[in-house]
Structure of Acetylornithine aminotransferase:
Amino acid sequence: MSHSVTRALFDQVMVPNYAPAQFIPVRGEGSRVWDQDGREFVDFAGGIAVNSLGHCHPALVAALTEQAGKLWHVSNTLTNEPALKLAKYLTENTFAERVFFSNSGAEANEAAFKLVRKYASDHFGAEKHEIVSCKSSFHGRTLFTVSVGGQPKYTEGFAPVPGGIRHVEYNSIESLKAAISDKTCAVVVEPVQGEGGVLPASREFLEAARALCDAHNALLVFDEVQTGVGRSGSLYAYMEYSVTPDILTSAKSLGGGFPVGAMLTTEKVAKSFGVGTHGSTYGGNPLACAVAHKVLEIVNTPEVLAGVRAKSQRFVDGLNAINAKYGVFKEVRGLGLLLGGVLTDAYAGRAKDFMLAAERHQLMALVAGVNVVRFAPSLVIPDADIDEGLKRFEAAVAEVVGQTA
């Protein structure tokens, strides 16, 4: 079949910072996607943990369509009803008392990192400006967020980068103790490191971070861009750990596929962002907020959250059964429906081989670094699609193992 738009066009017209798959999706429904040639894929990638309710969920389509017939954009010289309704929902269902809206997780984190320095400057002076983050962390692709992120490869070629940032070993209380001081304005942590390998934090590490921040008058920031909005089995992962941050960032699943981000915080901390100190032209866009509000209404229910936990166990059991046959994983780890298979030494560095093999068997999967195959499907993926996807993944594993042998 010939197409007027092909994958080859990407190489002709797009900046080469991505290397997308060779097929082009054109239609999605639930956890199934069809390409230009009509091939059907099972989606275990979820747009990188974005499509929290799958593709084209009827309630989200209806919310977007309804809002599109009313009001698209008004700028932040005005407010709008969908933004206020979404902020009210978030403050009523989390620790937060104030919300700032953006378009993405990177922008939400950028706002958070600016806010912690502004708060420290307002209350303690300019010397209290250091941010402590974790090695292998990921917080976005702006210059500030890649600097706070603990992966040097993302700052190569972009120097000089913002200073005043220290990185510690994830899940190491001793490393954190050694780095934090009275110059620290904030500690930034992902409850589960996503891009860093789908590695959950220990409860002890997060509790220590909270206690050390309190002892040093520093703010605790949880980056829940990937773990938030039901993916952990709770509305936000901090609820799983019973450790409450001062600032939380959210995006990805929040919009169910529509671009939106949010920074949640307390009234006391929010005061440091007075009029004119920070902004976002599209932040709080009525279309995005209408969709996000509907996502939250659907996800934040006992049925869906309990379903995440049950589906997570089904995934883990299925992956472990595959691993019992082929021995490709050291472990399957993660939280809720953010899962990773850590490759054994025999397959070290070959996560992408498994992802590409999955693609050949019409399964969409992800990687988290070179040693972890990552899965972040819809939170409401049917059990039948989990089973079919795992069947296809087993075929992909068999292919890689066979090629290796």
In short: The two ends are 36 Å apart (CA to CA).
